[in-house]
Amino acid sequence: MKNKTDLTNGSILNSLITFSIPILISSVFQQLYNAADTAIVGNFLGEQSLAAIGSTSAIFELIVGFALGVGNGMSVVTARYHGAKNYEMVKKSFAHALIIGLFITLTIMMIGHLGLHHLLKSLNTPLDIIDEAYSYIYIILLFVQITFLYNLGSGLLRAVGNSFIPLVILVFACFINVTLDIIFITRFNLGIQGAAIATVIAQTFSVAACFIYIYLKVPELLLSKVHFYLDKQLLIDLLTQGLSMGLMSSVVSIGSIVLQTALNKFGAIIIAAQVTARKVQFFFILPISSLATSLTTFVSQNYGAKQYPRIKKAINYSMFLSVFWGISSAILLRFISVPLIKTISGSNNVLLINTAKNYIAFATLFFAVLGMLLCLRNSLQGLGQKIEPLISSI
């Protein structure tokens, strides 16, 4: 398979960097899905609609984060079998992950359909934006299966050593999303719903492209009927690993929802400031989180191949790089945060800009600590540990 990195042999540092760079760029474009919605809505529809998206950001992160966590968690199991060169179990793990994902996402959809509006009310979402907020996040929730399938497909490609193709697919999808955002909002006057529809269409393209590539180019992931016969032990392993990482993401998002509940009391300007600041923050955290994501696959493959010294060295390299970036980005943001805030929010409101600036200034103090946490936690996940990383998140 082209664009494949062998993580069980060769230079550890080169392997980590080579594998993590496409993940980093993919993460940037993944964030552009959200940032594009934010920037286009802020510039074309105004601060009220921007606040409507902002009021749902914690719920959005909860939905996407859980889907991403479950997909990545199950991919860890696949990576372990790939490192052990047990390709039959690689295929079985893929088939079982599809079954699990179907049931989990259907459950999320049903719960969301019944309780989403009530959740927005309980978050103290201002009455003047609650209907607009609901119209946006309901569409995202309705198609959570699309979000899961893309994250599963890209996670499986990374599990077998390919982090480049998910990047290529995501770049094209991001351009589709931005283009449709502008068309739906400015030409069809669909408002905030247009941004949600554009996101779903772009993600659907991602899923189709990802699975077509797997069918054409990745024989170790080609499935047949026999791979769907239930293997109880494998099912439990995939489910617990997926739920562990999914719940880990959810715990962080639940903390954000509690924060959102308090912020929503302060009105549209503060909500818009917070969502803008979080967009800036996320972009600068991406190098750390991307390195940690690549470390999960690296550790899992080498654990399956019983290359334990490589695991220890990779963790040390990752910790150093994460701390270095955390300190560097915190310094850099002291100088460039205001222009970034103005660009993303499309606003010159002094209160909005100062609030977002203060948020970023405080959050960046902890980037280096976050880097160490992510490296250690993702390493444990790569080793198949489920409870300890979850407790760490709590």
Number of strands: 0
Mean pLDDT: 87
Q: What is the H/E order?
A: HHHHHHHHHHHHHH
The end-to-end distance, rounded to whole angstroms, is: 39 Å
User: Which structural class matches the secondary elements?
Assistant: mainly alpha
Cα Rg: 20 Å
Low-confidence stretches: none
Protein model, in words:
The structure is a single chain. The longest helix is centred in the last third of the chain and has 38 residues. This protein is 83% helix and 0% strand. By secondary structure, the protein is mainly α.
Describe the secondary-structure layout:
Blueprint lengths: L11 H33 L2 H9 L1 H27 L3 H36 L7 H13 L1 H16 L4 H24 L4 H26 L14 H32 L4 H37 L3 H38 L4 H14 L3 H16 L4 H7 L1
Helix pairs in contact: 1-2, 1-7, 1-8, 1-10, 1-11, 2-5, 2-10, 3-4, 3-6, 3-9, 3-10, 4-5, 4-6, 4-9, 5-8, 6-8, 7-8, 9-14, 10-11, 10-12, 10-13, 11-12, 11-13
Which terms summarize this structure?
globular, 0% strand, mainly alpha, single chain, 14 helices, 394 residues
Question: How would you sum up this structure in a few lines?
Answer:
This protein is mainly α. It has helices at 12-44, 47-55, 57-83, 87-122, 130-142, 144-159, 164-187, 192-217, 232-263, 268-304, 308-345, 350-363, 367-382, 387-393. Helix 6 packs parallel to helix 8 (192-217).
